[in-house]
Amino acid sequence: MTVINARSVDEALTALRDHPRARLLQGGTDLMVEVNLQRTSVQDVIALRQVSELRRWHVDEQSRAVRIGAGVPYAELERNPLALHLPALAQAARTVGSPQIRAAGSLGGNLGTCSPAGDGLPVLSAMDAVVHLRSATDSRDVSIHDFMLGVKRSARRPDELIVAVTLPLLDGFQGYAKVGTRNAMVISVASACLIHDASEGSIRLAYGAVAPTVVRARNAERWLAANAPLRGRPVFDRALASEFGRRAAEECAPIDDHRSTARYRRHAVAVLAERLLLQASGYGASREHTT
Amino acid sequence: MSTSTTTRRRGVLGTSALRPDGLPKVQGRFAFSSDAWADNMLWGATLRSPHPHARIVSIDTSGALAINGVSAVITADDVPGQLTYGLISNDQPVFARDVVRFAGEPVAAVAADHPETARRALAAITVVYEVLPALTRAEEALDTGTTPIHPDGNVIRRQRIVRGDQSFAGDVVVEGTYDIGMQDQAFLGLEAALALPDDDGSGVELFVATQWLHEDQKQIAACLGLPLDKVRLTLGGVGGAFGGREDISLQVHCCLLALATGRPIKMQYGREESFFGHIHRHPATIWMRHHADRDGTLRRVEARVLMDGGAYASTSSAVLINAVTHVQGPYRCENATVDGYAVRTNNPPCGAMRGFGVVQACFAHESQMDKLAAACGLDPVTIRLKNAMRTGDRLITGQVVESVAPVERCIRETAALPLPPELSEHPDALQLPGGSGRTARRNNVTRGIGWGVSIKNLMYSEGFDDYATARCRLANGVATLQFATAEVGQGFVVLAQQIARSVLGVDTVLLEPISTAIGSAGSTSASRQTWMSGGAVDGACRLVRERLFEQVAREHHIDPLRLTIDGIDVIDSAGDLRVSVEDASRGLVIDETFEHHHRATEELDENGQGNCHVAFAFVAHRAVVDVDTELGLVKVVQIATAQDVGRVLNPLAALGQVEGGIAQGLGLAVMEEIVLVDGKMRNPSFTDYLLPTALDAPEVVVSMIEEPEPQAPLGAKGIGEPPCISVTPAIVAAIRAATGKDLARVPVRPQDIVFG
Question: Predicted ipTM?
Answer without folding.
Answer: 0.95
